[in-house]
């Protein structure tokens, strides 16, 4: 059973609900990096990921009265960001259909690996993996990113996505098999 005091952010959530911007900033600052990484993995675009996270945090601020002081903020923020990513992916799909999109940053990768040869090989491999993940249906991509890349349990992912653990297990299995099949051919 959960009781008062179970959530270490309880006081900050209460202050943020009351309109304290500093408390809200403090509340979300330790989540921002993780949310940005999640959005980048979902969208394959660092700039779009930044926009999604900023929009999500602004939305949470505007609807701060919905925050529950008894619940951790992380899962709530993750759900908001995932929903914004889904919206962005739907818009991208429509734009692609009508030929109105460009893949300006589809394959950008951080270049912090040592040596130019290792960097080139790693970048190419990462681009291939990112491109393959980007081609997956959103349901498979979400499950794969949450469980495999973010390290969440299947139960957490199921809770965040509003489905069962078995569905998450199946989606992750299918996503991994897609990647495996794709890269066995290379």
From TrEMBL:
Transmembrane segments: none annotated. Residues 128-179 form the RNA polymerase sigma factor 70 region 4 type domain. The keyword DNA-binding applies. It comes from the Bacteria. PROSITE patterns: SIGMA70_ECF. CDD domains: Sigma70_r4 (cd06171). One of its GO terms (molecular function) is DNA binding. GO terms for biological process: DNA-templated transcription initiation. Residues 27-93 form the RNA polymerase sigma-70 region domain. Keywords: DNA-binding, Sigma factor, Transcription, Transcription regulation. Belongs to the sigma-70 factor family. ECF subfamily. This is RNA polymerase sigma factor. It comes from Pacificimonas flava.
């Amino acid at each position: 059973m959960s009781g008062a005091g179970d959530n270490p952010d309880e006081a900050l959530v209460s202050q943020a609900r009351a309109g304290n911007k500093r408390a809200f900033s403090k509340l979300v600052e330790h989540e921002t990096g993780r949310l940005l990484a999640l959005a980048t993995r979902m969208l394959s675009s660092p700039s779009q990921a930044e926009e999604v996270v900023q929009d999500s945090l602004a939305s949470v601020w505007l609807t701060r009265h919905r925050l529950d002081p008894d619940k951790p903020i992380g899962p709530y923020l993750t759900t908001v960001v995932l929903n914004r990513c889904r919206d962005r992916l739907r818009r991208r799909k429509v734009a692609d259909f009508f030929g109105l999109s460009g893949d300006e940053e589809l394959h950008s990768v951080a270049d912090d690996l040592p040596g130019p040869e290792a960097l080139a090989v790693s970048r190419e491999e990462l681009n291939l993996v990112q491109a393959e993940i980007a081609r997956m249906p959103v349901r498979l991509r979400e499950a794969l990113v949450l469980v495999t890349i973010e390290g969440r349990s299947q139960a957490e992912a199921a809770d965040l996505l509003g489905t069962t653990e078995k569905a998450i297990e199946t989606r992750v299995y299918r996503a991994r098999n897609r990647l495996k099949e794709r890269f066995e051919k290379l």
